[in-house]
Each structure stands twice: as C-alpha cells, then as structure tokens.
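Predict the holo structure. Ligand: zinc ion.
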Amino acid sequence: MLLGPYPIERATGAGKRIGVFVLCSDGTSPRYVGRSDRDIGHEIRRVGHVFPEIRDFLFEITDSAEDAFKLECRLWHEIRPPLRRTHPVAPAPSESRCPLNGCAGH
Ligand SMILES: [Zn+2]
C-alpha cells in the first residue's frame, strides 16, 4: 500500500531502499510515477527537483526490483502520469514483462 502523501522536502525520509513512488502537484493530483532499485529517497528528491510543480510524494517499499517494476507498471497504467509518458522499463538484466494483459511494455 502506498504511504503518504508527504511533503517533497521529506523525500530522503523514504530511505535507501527499493520501491515505487508517485509524485503529486498536491496531495491528490498524481503527476509522475517512478521507481528506484537502490535508493528511493534519493530518486524522489532528484525527480522532484526536475519538476518544480511537484509538492508531495507517496511511496511503497518492495522486496525486490522485480516487484517494484510490476507495481510501477500497474500504477503507471492506472494513473497515466502526465509528467511520465513513457512506459516503465524493467530492471536490467531481467526479462520481466509488464503484468497487464495485452501490454507490449517491458
Ligand atoms: Zn504495460
């Protein structure tokens, strides 16, 4: 389950862990879906700086990069985030595919 929203200034509080995040222009308007396979706190902070309209984040820690990729795919399809138009990319060197039926993304 996604935790948050939290203010973007608290991004490093998500920790040096594997996980998925959603960035919002406020607590309820998702704008970006992303993943980090190593340091989610750092990645939230990095992407938050790229897009000045981002104010808040939600996140979920996962057990593996594979799990993170599958969750990222599900959220990406659900939200269709306006600041992230390209489909999530599987963690190298995995052969993982998007879990959604009929999706060609990987
Ligand atoms: Zn897909």
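The radius of gyration is 13 Å. Residues 48 and 54 are 6 Å apart (CA to CA).
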